[in-house]
Structures are given as structure tokens and as C-alpha cells.
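Quiz preparation item.
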């Protein structure tokens, strides 16, 4: 009888050794991923792509809660929450320059000329050299660069030349980069958080604002600004930040799942963003928004007027010219 019990115990141990960890025994990771784009925006769709792939490939070990559309707070708040580790992942724009000024120089005016050029700049890995000490300074790492897009100018009246542009009281983000640019262009820049912008446009506190087409649509600003100038003055990236301490505690398998899901979500975002821009232009035209394509003369005047913004970058942010030079070196039109 004792021999039988021993054999049964050995057999049971062998079965347990050959059996994968149960869901209860496996490590689990709870993740909050926050953003500030509207629910239909390509950046919010990127969040869904990441969540679905990571939960599936990890067989549920990762549980991802999405908070797009300012559900966890505006851009500045979710950036701080991610840096502190209250949330694990956040989508953030140029405000990350507060921890590494060089990254603010990624949004210099008129240095990126089209979608193929933007892909060369941000997907080739070459911009990694210009991240400076961001992770050490902030406690977060840049896990991916996705699309905000080419910024355009919306307004309550038509803008077809420099004189009309100069009449604008224009809302800018809470970012000195944009204040300097719009001063150089002759406008009256007024920094406001995005959460206050709809009301500011509706009540004529400001005449207009600048954002990519997809953002203007997703936030509903086109409803109260019926004119757009396709200035394409800045290509704005969006940074996917991950709390560095949290990421460092993932085991090797979890990191591999996380990194692959993130890489695939970033690629997906770029694939859908260019098409979304074209679809949004068609939507605006169908819904009474007048879009002005600047003449070659007007565009050249804007580029020349913006040069003081480059001078400001060079004085304030070491490495700004190196970034312009890098962008020029990977421009497909110049190869």
C-alpha cells in the first residue's frame, strides 16, 4: 500500500511538472493606457489595437484598461501620472520637452515635407539619438512615436494671405514652441489647454487654432471654425510613454509580448493615419468647411516668416540645427 502511494505521488508530481502554470499561478499585469484624442481618432484606435494584441498573446496575463478622450485627464495630467507610475502608459505630445528640451525641437516649423518624409524621420530609428536624457530626467521611456500629423490652421474667417493671417488671435498649445512660431507669423498667439478650446472658439475668445485635420474632426472644433488653411507648418508626433520602473519589473517574456504589441500598434497607427487625413478632408468638404490651399507665394512667405522660430530654437535648445540637418538628410525628395 505504501509503495502504491509513493508511485501515485511520483506520478502526480510528474504531471504537475509537465502542466503549464494555471491562470491563477501565472503572473498578471494590470495596465492603464491613457490618451487625450477622441474615440475615432487613429491614436485611440492604436490603443485598442495594442490592448487586443497584448491581451491575446499573453493569454490574459495582461489586462489593459483604456482611457482615451481625456478620461484620465488632459495631456499634462496624464503625462505626470505616467511619470509617477499611477498609470503605466500615456500618449503625450510636445509637452515632454519640459523634461528634455531637445525633444521640443522635433516640432520645428517647415522641416518635414510629406508623409514619406515623416516616416523616414520617425520610423527609421534615427531620431533616437535626439532623445537626450529623457528617461533619466522623467522616469518614463518613449516606447513608440505615433502620428498627431501635419498641423493646419482653422479660423472663423478665410485666411488666404499673410495680411489675413496676421489678423488672427490664435490659440496655441501650452508650449512655447508654438508661441514663438505664431509670433513670427504675425498673429496674436494665446496659449490654452485643449479642454477649453471648443468654448473659446464658440465664444470668439480666439479666432482659430492649429491642429492636424484628424484632431480638429475628433474634437468637434470644425463645428465652430468653418475655415481651414492647409498650411502643413509642423508635423507633430505623439509619444507613447511607459513608466520606466514598471516596465523594468516585467519579466523577459512579458517584455517581449509588450514590445511586439507596441511595435505592431505603432505600425498600424501610421498605416491608418495618412488615409484618415484624406478621409477627414473629404468629410469637411461635405460638411461646409472651406479648405484653402495656400498659393506657392503665400507658402513661401510663411516659410520665410518662420525663420525667427528657427533662430529661437538654436538659441534655446542645443541640437536644434542637428535635428533640422537630420530631417533634411532623410528627405526622399532630396535623394
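Solution:
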Amino acid at each position: 500500500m505504501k509503495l502504491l502511494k509513493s508511485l501515485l505521488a511520483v506520478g502526480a508530481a510528474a504531471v504537475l511538472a509537465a502542466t503549464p502554470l494555471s491562470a491563477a499561478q501565472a503572473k498578471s499585469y494590470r495596465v492603464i493606457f491613457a490618451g487625450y484624442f477622441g474615440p475615432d481618432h487613429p491614436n485611440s484606435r492604436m490603443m485598442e489595437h495594442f490592448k487586443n494584441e497584448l491581451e491575446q498573446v499573453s493569454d490574459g496575463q495582461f489586462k489593459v484598461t483604456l482611457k482615451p478622450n481625456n478620461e484620465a485627464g488632459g495631456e499634462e495630467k496624464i503625462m505626470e501620472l505616467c511619470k509617477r507610475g499611477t498609470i503605466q502608459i500615456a500618449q503625450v505630445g510636445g509637452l515632454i520637452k519640459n523634461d528634455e528640451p531637445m525633444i521640443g525641437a522635433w516640432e520645428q516649423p517647415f522641416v518635414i515635407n510629406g508623409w514619406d518624409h515623416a516616416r523616414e524621420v520617425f520610423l527609421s530609428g534615427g531620431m533616437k539619438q535626439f532623445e537626450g536624457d529623457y528617461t533619466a530626467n522623467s522616469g518614463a521611456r518613449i516606447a513608440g512615436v505615433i502620428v498627431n500629423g501635419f498641423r493646419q490652421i482653422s479660423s472663423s474667417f478665410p485666411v488666404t494671405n499673410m495680411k489675413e493671417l496676421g489678423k488672427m488671435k490664435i490659440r496655441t498649445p501650452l508650449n512655447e514652441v508654438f508661441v514663438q512660431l505664431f509670433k513670427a507669423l504675425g498673429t496674436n498667439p494665446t496659449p490654452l489647454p485643449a479642454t477649453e478650446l471648443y468654448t473659446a472658439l464658440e465664444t470668439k475668445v480666439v479666432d482659430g487654432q492649429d491642429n492636424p485635420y484628424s484632431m480638429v474632426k475628433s474634437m468637434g472644433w470644425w463645428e465652430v471654425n468653418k475655415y481651414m488653411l492647409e498650411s502643413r507648418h509642423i508635423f507633430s508626433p505623439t509619444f507613447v510613454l511607459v513608466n520606466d520602473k514598471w516596465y523594468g519589473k516585467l519579466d523577459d517574456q512579458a517584455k517581449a509580448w509588450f514590445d511586439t504589441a507596441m511595435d505592431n500598434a505603432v505600425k498600424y497607427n501610421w498605416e491608418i493615419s495618412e488615409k484618415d487625413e484624406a478621409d477627414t478632408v473629404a468629410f469637411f468638404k461635405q460638411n461646409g468647411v472651406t479648405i484653402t490651399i495656400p498659393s506657392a507665394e503665400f507658402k513661401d512667405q510663411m516659410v520665410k516668416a518662420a525663420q525667427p522660430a528657427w533662430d529661437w530654437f538654436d538659441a534655446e535648445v542645443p541640437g536644434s540645427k542637428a535635428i533640422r540637418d537630420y530631417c533634411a538628410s532623410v528627405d526622399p525628395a532630396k535623394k
